[in-house]
Amino acid sequence: MEQGQWRQARRLVREARRVVALTGAGISAESGVPTFRDAGGLWKSHRPEELATPEALARDPRTVLEWYAWRRSALAGCRPNEGHRALARFFLRRGEAGLVTQNVDGLHTRAALEEAGEDPAEAALPLELHGAVGRDRCESCEARWPAEPLGETLPRCSACGGLRRPDVVLFGETLDPDLLDRARRLAERADLCLVVGTSAVVYPAAALPLATRGAGGHIVEVNVQRTALTEVATLALLGEAGTVLPALLD
After folding, report:
1. What is the DSSP letter of 104?
2. Most buried among 13, 30, 55, 164, by the most CB within 10 A?
3. Measuring CA to CA, which residue among 135, 134, 109 is closest to residue 124?
4. Which stretches in the chain have pLDDT values below 70?
5. Can you give the C-alpha Rg of the chain in angstroms?
6. How far apart are CA 153 and CA 233, in angstroms?
7. Whole-angstrom Cα distance, residue 189 to residue 167?
8. Beta strands 192-196; 127-128: pairing state
9. Between helices 107-116 and 82-94, what is the axis angle to 10°?
10. Burial (CB count <10 Å: 0-12, 13-18, 19+), residue 195
């Protein structure tokens, strides 16, 4: 990468009054997070696309919850990488939240808490557009709790008796409109949108960098390969997030 690109990228970061960052699966892949289709694309003869649906949860909640328990166990050995940590430090220093993620692995939250230590971590906590595997929520009243091990009986809400399920957006469900609105407002008022580890082509998340650009801001893309967003980005920094982000943000 040319030194001129690095200087320009650092200048954009330094001069931006407000920054929003959108992250996707690429940043978590560097932490060893298994993809949706790992284990040969099947889990106990089921395809993930057949399990991560409201219909499957209603028809066979035990199997769906067992699959998510397996996903949680697969995530247990994964740690935030230097890309997660650089973003956490960046937003902690700025003291203003701006991190939006499409990931459900909770690694941004862990990085924020670890980097903050005993200080408040709110500025580095992400808006999790697709939820988080590490939380449960009630199917009926939408109360939320940290995930617990799956027992012999289906987990139930202590308040209303509804089914406790992973707090993630299943295929066919809509994203939380309040979260989307908060993310949109962050993007519209940002001078700079960092797009990290995502092709940013799946809507509605794909609209966020375009909202920044439409309001006169800049897009800096960090990815291991060119994407559809590269052509409209101010700069595209090719490389892994764990290498590029510390050099760009610290």
Report:
1. -
2. 164
3. 109
4. 1, 35-45
5. 19
6. 50
7. 29
8. unpaired
9. 60
10. buried
Which residues contact residue 81 at a Cβ distance below 8 angstroms, ignoring those fewer than 6 apart?
Answer: 27, 30, 31, 107, 241, 242
Q: What is the pLDDT of residues 206-236, one digit of tens each?
A: 899 999 999 999 999 999 999 999 999 999 9
Euclidean distance between CA atoms 125 and 92, whole angstroms: 9
Q: Which of 84, 108, 130, 218 is catalytic?
A: 130
Question: What contacts 42, CB < 8 A, 6 or more positions away?
Answer: none
Token look-up 């066979």 returns 60
218 is catalytic: no
- Cβ proximity of 216 and 190 under 8 Å: no
d(CA 202, CA 187): 16
CA separation for the pair 101, 82 (Å, rounded) = 16
What whole-number distance in Å separates Cα of residue 110 and Cα of residue 88?
Answer: 9
